[in-house]
Amino acid sequence: MTLGPVAYPAELTSTSQRATTLATNLRAVAENVSDAHTRLQDGGRPADWEGEASEAADHAMTVVVADLDAGVAALEQGSLAMDTYAAALVSLEQRFVALVDEIDAVNAQVAAHQSDRRTANAVPDADTTLLDQQQGQLQSATADLRARVAQWEADARSAHEEVVAALQRVDTVAEGDDAARAPDRTDAAGLADDLQALVDSGDPTAIAGFWAGLDPAERQALTIHSPQLVGNADGVPVADRDVANRTSLYSDVDYLGQREADDQLSRNEADQLANARSTRDVLDDYRDDIDVTTGDHLSNLLVYKPGEHGGNGGVALSLGDPDLADDVAALVPGVTSEQSSLAGNVSSMDRLLTEADAQNGDRSVATIAWLDYNAPSGEPWNPDDLLDVVQDSGDLLMTTNELFANAGGDRFADFVAGLRASDEQAGEDGGGRAHLTAIGHSYGSTTASYAATAGMDVDDLVLIGSPGAGEGNDEATDLLASGNVWVGAAEHDPITHLGNPGRIGLGHDPAQDYFDAHRFEVDPGSYRVEDLFANHSSYFDEGSDSLANIAAVTTGNDPTLVDGRTAPGALTLPALIAGSSAASAGEQLVEHGDDLLRLLDPRGILP
């Protein structure tokens, strides 16, 4: 048998990412059609209509309602078929990469063998026993590999043919009508009522069990009928929350975008559209990033509430799947944390993911940016007009009050409980309980502290740039009875010097020695007064000590520790402001001293 190289399989004509995007778009269309169906079905004709006009209206609306329901049924089946196809493509893509690697290796061995054979053939009476044995082994290996390539190509054709057939089964009006009237069609409204009751009960474990008991068609129908409910239900698996929330997102972008084009957008709707577009832009930024653990897209939209929190919106996005990762870290940001600031917080979590992966060996990591509470917001130092100054200043005054942090802490504790429930449900199919770290930055550290006192189930709590750990929390054990509390406080970060009872109402500085938390090393930051607030936002800077130490906690490793602050002798806020102001003034004097001297003594009289 002639020995030759193995041919590479033909590349796929589609990708799992494109199939997933199409499935999401089909669901978004289905949601809009479903909403129109529900509104028309519930609204009916005006109550005071009578006679022939009333009968004609009833008949017309009955026809339209039936047509809309047929469209929904067809889209349910179509999007489910595309989901199935996307999952098949994920597997095919992973197998393709493995096959190409094997073909590269085997073909290199074949080429080397053929070179050795040519050399041996040039030598009279050369002993080719070993070459003959090697050729037999390579012929067996190449035959096996060609068979697996053929099987891969057959599976790729089969997946394509199956999705085409599934779509063709519902590509006419009559077939849509048949799907809508099928006796085994899912009662999506009834399932939505059942899920809503579980959400109202506040039991994420029951929600996880409910979802696990649904078949794929039921999940698809429920997601299309009530994507906002599914996507924001703590306990529903991360991957399914992502599907539901993307459905809502793209439906909003389409519907509200059309209202904008028609000049019909209300102020509240304008806020929602801006929030939807900012979230879509972040998802687009990560569109091509793949989770090496799952082979699926890296980003997952866990919370999507564009109309919440006074128009600021609520959102949470993970990089990696927390249900499948070994180590999970969730960030609660602070002041000005709203849906429009998602991009910056996800970038921080991207840097943490990269650093944690570098430290984590074979364990997998997922990171989350959680912005689903009414954090103080606004930028009075950069206003658009006087009204913004008044509104934003009033909002920022709430940073000295624990009200938002306390309420946000309850919400975050519920979110974490949902992560635990869906993770444990996934763990029944293999894999253990994730090591979970909560990270609170700035006002978010106070929020995370209140979540801890509300019973948040985490292994580690990290407080960085903290203005205080919440009133009534006198030491680390008040936050976590079991587990570790870690603190990162840059010496030249003014916010970290605000804590202590009675000062601004946010509780003790957790970096103090008496608080008995584990304080890890953080870069002190610039000592120039104009850089102080930049120091406050530097904890996730690439290459920083703080990022490396937060990643160490995230991955269950030991960060580099330093002593807690002690009084007297510790730097105070007045001393920091005075010293940094003097340092900046001194720099200016050195830099511009000659100019100042010429201004004061233009004739050069002074010595």
From TrEMBL:
The organism sits in which domain of life?
Bacteria
Keyword DNA damage present in the record's keywords: the answer is no
NAD: present as a keyword of the record? no
Please name the GO terms that the record assigns under molecular function. hydrolase activity
Q: Where is the DUF1023 domain?
A: 313-498
| Keyword vocabulary terms for this entry | Hydrolase
Give the signal peptide as a residue range, or say none if absent.
none
Q: One Pfam family of this protein, by short name? A: Abhydrolase_8
Q: What is this protein called?
A: Alpha/beta hydrolase
